Amino acid sequence: MSEDRHIPFSLPRLTEEEMRTRLDKMYAHMGQRRSVRHFSTDPVPIDLLERAVQIAGTAPSGAHKQPWSFCIVTDPDLRKRIRVAVEEEEHRSYNGRMSERWLSDLEPIGTDHVKPFIEEAPALIIVFKKVHEQEEDGGERHPNYYVQESCGIAVGFLLAALHEVGLVALTHTPSPMGFLAELLARPENERAFLNIPVGWPSNDATVPNLLRKPLNEILFHYGHDGGGEGG
Predict the structure, then answer these.
(1) How far apart are CA 117 and CA 204, in angstroms?
(2) Mean pLDDT across the stretch 198-212?
C-alpha cells in the first residue's frame, strides 16, 4: 500500500446514453453465460487463466485482506485423483446426505455422483478461502473478515472474465471438500471454497433448458419516485 493512506481517484463520467448502451451490451453478453458440464479436452492457454485470476483479484474484500488463493490444476494425474475423491464424496451425498427435496430440485439438471468433467476439462481453478492469515514462522494468527462474502465476489469476477473470452465454467461444490486441500497440499489456514472446471464446450455440449427470473421478481424499489434505490 502507498505511504499515503488515500490517493486521488476518478473515472471518466459517461453520458446516460453511453451508460445504458454499455449495460445493455453487458446484459446481452452475460445473459449467454451458462454452467457447462461437457467440455472439449483442447488445452486453454495458461496466460488466459492467469489473467482471469488476476481480474478476480481486483474484487473488493473485507478490510482489503484479499482472503483467497486460486490454484490452476492442469496435471492429468492430479485431476484424476481429484475426480476419484470427488465421486466418493458425491456418491455419499446422492445416496444419503441429500434430502428428497434436494434431489428433486436437481432432477431437471440431470446430475449424479459421476463427474467426468473433472478430467475432461483441460483445467480446474480451485478456489481456497483463507480463514485467517498465518505468519510464515507459524507464529501469530491475524484475522480475516467477511471471508465467505469476499471470495464469492471474487469468483463472480472470475466467471465474468472467463465468459468474456468465450470460455465456459462450472461452479462445483463437492461437500465436504477437505480432500482438495490435502491433495493440493494447501496451508493449514486455507479451506476449499469452489472447484471450477474451465475450458471450451464440447461439440455436443448441452445445457438444461432453464429460465432466469425476470427483473420484476428479483428487484424491489424503495426510492420515493420508484426509480432510485433498489433492494
Answers:
(1) 14
(2) 96
